[in-house]
Design a protein that fits this description.
The structure holds two protein chains of two kinds. Chain A has seven helices and ten strands. By secondary structure, chain A is of the alpha/beta class. Chain A has a single domain, classed as 3-Layer(aba) Sandwich (Rossmann fold), CATH 3.40.50.620. In chain A, helix 3 packs across helix 4. The radius of gyration of chain A is 21 Å and the shape is globular. Chain A starts with a strand and ends with a helix. By secondary structure, chain B is of the alpha+beta class. Chain B starts with 6 loop residues before the first helix and ends in a 7-residue tail after the last helix. In chain B, a hairpin with a 6-residue loop joins strand 4 and strand 5. Chain B folds into three domains: 113 residues, Acyl-CoA dehydrogenase/oxidase, N-terminal domain (Butyryl-Coa Dehydrogenase, subunit A, domain 1, Orthogonal Bundle), CATH 1.10.540.10; 109 residues, Beta Barrel (Butyryl-CoA Dehydrogenase, subunit A, domain 2), CATH 2.40.110; 145 residues, Butyryl-CoA Dehydrogenase, subunit A, domain 3 (Up-down Bundle), CATH 1.20.140.10. The chains are: A alpha/beta, B alpha+beta. Chains A and B meet through helix 2 and helix 5 of A and helix 1 of B.
Chain lengths: 255, 384
Amino acid sequence: MCVKQIPDPAAPAALDPSTRNLVRDGKLIMDESDLYGVEMGLQLIDAAGGGEVTLVSMAPNGETNGLRNALAMGAAKAVLVSDPALAGSDALGTAKVLAAAIRRGPFDLVLAATESTDGYTGTMPVQLAELLGVPSVTFAKKVTVDGASLKVDRQTEAGYDEVACPLPAVVTVTAGVVEPRFPSFKGIMAAKSKPLETLSIADLGLDAASVGGAGAREEVVDVQQAEARQAGQLVTDEGDAHEKVIAFLEDLKLI
Amino acid sequence: MNFQESDEQLMLRNAVATIGQRYGHAYYAEKAREGEKTNELWAELGRAGYLGVNVPEAYGGGGMGITELAIVAEEVAAVGAPLLLMVVSPAICATLIAHFGSESQKERWLPGFATGELKMAFAITEPDAGSNSHHISTTATLDGDSYRLGGTKYYISGVDEAAAILVVARTGSDPDTGQARLSLLVVDRDSPGLTYQHIPVEIRAPEKQFTVFFDGVSVPAGNRIGSEGDGLRQVFFGLNPERILSAALASGIGRYALERASAYARERKVWSTPIGSHQGISHPLATAAIELECARLMAQKAAWRYDSGLDAGEAANMAKYAAGEAAIKALDQAIQTHGGNGMAIEYGLADMWGMARLLRIAPVSREMILNFVAQHTLGLPKSY
């Protein structure tokens, strides 16, 4: 399971004025959208009656805070890639690093969130699949494993597609499709003693020029304030609010 | 010296807060209004092992201490759902049984505390013996291999939802002073001869208060915790966790009130600026925040001393005092900040008043704490 550790979304975000990248120097927490993939992974293991969830993450300053939470939920171990040379990574650079970390051992299924809550590119998982040379299925709302093949209900705008593909594969899990478990107290206490390996890019045999800011092919050239949303229409209920709401919806030809 | 909670403690805080927020004050208030219990919340916390964090691991618990139990109680209270029975069942009863119980007693009761499935009430207060435990008149007389228990206890929380009651009873008297020699007995709530009567109080809480009558209740001698006559020392061992947990509940209520108040004061505009920009609103809230944080620190110190095996009496009493005062002040100021809305059911503040006010009286009154501090901290003559 690919886990991203991000600045607390509840705190005001800051951009580095020179690179226009998000400042990630402070304490990082687990991206909430990853909770669904972790839960999905744990459920698949329960259903299979064996196996384990390994967390893979890339973060600055050896940050492990967010990984501890997923370990407390039940993941077996974690691999963190942390290296000063990775500062300024774009999505493809991140995919290269995670692919190198994942390739170190055998794997059946790689799970990720559909997109991160801080960067929102939503491109990393498919790049990762390409680099690993395995199929990718995005926006999963349900995943079942049947021997060496995978069945995925893939969320679409109209409903969902039923997709089958061979394993191993990369699957992105839509937020909200499973109810993430809370770490039990035993899980919290056990998380401390679970294996958590921190690797540098040299450990992964990656060339510093191919990743991080040096290898990035994306560049943030400009940042603009989002347009303020127009104020909505306020209806004061004087006993006839329902009529006004109906008229409003009729105007839009919604009813 | 280190004021940083461990990763595990922070994770516990977050996890409990997340569960608590799913229920929230509206859930708690509805249960109180409907005369129901917060069973779903209790069960969910129990399943995750949070209600048994202080129960030894050998009996299925978390193997940690009162520090962790106080974290759980504070975080649930901070969403506006203070679980009063946490003060009684895991803090007093589980602590006493884990510390003084025999091996078979531990095997019998501790696994239930570990999951929260066992709720045990605690009965010490009597109509004629409030804070003066030497005057306890509820008497247990050994007759063969069981005790006969007679007497009355009152203001006992949660009797209607407890499977058993840990009763402090007189099993003898000092021949010289007449003071009670006490013992602790676990009494099945449904024992023949045990009846209980609801005491209506102005506290909007799912947990109720009861008078409990023991009329020749037969209690197996094997239900006595520890040795006969050693009850007072045992009770004192359980009272510090009780005080620390009360401080945690009060701290949580104070946090809940201040969070509501500051959110309201940031948004609410009467003229051009949010009311929180007026010092008449902001300074009293800031004062309440300072006093609350000081109380929380004292409660953490008390819990740390207790878990470290140090004497925690002074710190636990001070924490209980400070948190009780800070909670009611925070809540009062939160209500004031809301103006008329402060009394509206929708804003979920005024209905917490009874519980916050109670924590200034129970489980030990402000005045008894001041007596304790005057005598033990300041070396002043005993006043009673």
